[in-house]
Amino acid sequence: MRELTLNGYIDDDMWFGDEITPETLHESLYGTNNEYSDDVHIRLNSYGGSCNAAVRMFDDIRAYPGSVSITVSGTAASAATMLCMAADRLEITPGSLFMIHDPSMMAFGNEHDLTDAISLLRACKESILNMYERRVRISRNDAADMMTAATWMDANVAFERGFVDAITDDPVKYPVNSTEDRAAFAKKAEASVQAWFDRKKKPVHPAAMTEKAEPESIPIPPPEPDPDRVKVRNTDTRLDELKY
Predict the structure, then answer these.
(1) With the CA atoms of 166, 170, 172 and 177 taken in that order, what torsion angle do they form, in degrees rounded to the nearest 10?
(2) What is the spatial distance between Cα 47 and Cα 75, in angstroms, rounded to a whole number?
(3) Among 160-164, 205-209, 227-231, whose mean pLDDT is lowest?
(4) SS3 77
(5) 232 or 111, greater pLDDT
(6) What is the mean pLDDT of residues 63-70?
(7) Could you tell me which of 84, 69, 73, 17 has the C-alpha nearest to residue 45?
(8) Taking 80 as the threshold, does the pLDDT of residue 59 lie above it?
(9) Is the separation of the CB atoms in 22 and 60 below 8 Å?
(10) CATH architecture for segment(s) 2-102+128-231
(11) Quick one: which of 165, 155, 158 has its CA closest to 143?
């Protein structure tokens, strides 16, 4: 069985070099010329990212002709859990974490614009629940409540609630042997999820990046205000700006 490793944030484009994009996943899974159709095992560690990218990855995995098994080794948080739902078999290592929460986005404008943003967020949440509902052993309403509460699960809880099919006996990539270790691991994972939102507030275009440049050292200056355009309507918001 072919082995793949996915480790990084989920995004539609490569920005900082640590992203998993639909294109890189497709090439790894299908091959450069779509020559692969064998069974594949994916070892996943991701703190989430773009809803749009995660949906594209979900669909790509579901369309793959071979069997795809995924093992969460470290953390599957936010949008990464959507990708997980595509697996024919989904396992988690004993020391790993699984987290679900409501999607979010940045929006501004008048009352109509913000109402549109809320509608988009609600639709995005329902689409995520559509994917969860294929696997979980809890009701759709309970899963929705867990998202609202931003729920972190250890391997046992993720298995009990049906988000994963099994807890693997493979060696744990990130071992946590005590209550103190688990608390530190969870705190680090939460910080990594927050880092995703923080980095998207200060975008750096890939074309401006160099091999050794730090992301913060190449800021993009804000555009000059357009006097003929007082505001930006929510219809200008791209789907890949939905964060999960």
Answers:
(1) 80
(2) 6
(3) 227-231
(4) strand
(5) 111
(6) 98
(7) 73
(8) yes
(9) yes
(10) Alpha-Beta Complex (3.90)
(11) 158
3-class SS of residue 42: strand
Q: Which two tokens stand for residue 236?
A: 């200008």
The amino acid present at 14, given as its one-letter code, is: M
What number is the average pLDDT over the span 59-74?
Answer: 98
The pLDDT tens digits of the residues spanning 122-154 come to 999 999 999 999 999 999 999 999 999 999 999
Residues of 154-166 as b/e, b for ≥16 C-beta within 10 angstroms? bbeebbebebbbe
Continuous segment of H or E residues that includes residue 92: strand 89-92
The amino acid occupying position 105 is M
> What is the residue type of 70?
I
Distance between alpha carbon 224 and the CA centroid of its chain, in Å? 33
**Rounded Cα gap, residues 1 and 10, in angstroms:** 24
What's the gap between Cα 134 and its chain centre?
18
Q: Where are the beta strands (DSSP E) in the chain?
A: 2-7, 9-10, 19-20, 40-46, 68-77, 89-92, 97-100, 151-154, 166-167
As a whole number of Å, the CA-based R_g of the chain is: 19
Q: What are the counts of helices (DSSP H) followed by strands (DSSP E) for the chain?
A: 7, 9
Residue 76, SS3?
A: strand
